[in-house]
Design goal:
Length: 134
Amino acid sequence: MGLLSLGVGMAVGYVLGTKHGKEGFEQARRSASEAWNDPDLQEKIQDTVSSVSDTAGKVAQDVAEKTRRAATAAAEAVRQGGAEAAETFDEEFHAPETVPSSHGDVDSDPGLSTEKEGSDWAQEGGAPGDRGGG
């Protein structure tokens, strides 16, 4: 794209830079100006702009209304889905009753074991019965 733009720019510059190019450019500019200032063309442009503006306003209103309807429908669907999910959960899923398998932290603390041999897992000086102060 950059090389193409450079080539077009160089060609336009060359044409505009030559005497013949300047005359041709001025003639093209005068023709375009005359065409642009033609009252019939200006009237057609105004009619087109007015028509496009009216159509755009109507389309914007239609889009806004349909968006509002879609948002309302989506909110209602979410509301109903949430209610159904809560009802299904209440009917079908209950937390299981749990029964403790131990009596506190005693079962998980090897230093408090009642075994005489091999109960000192942390290498802290023997079985619990041997901690007498010696």
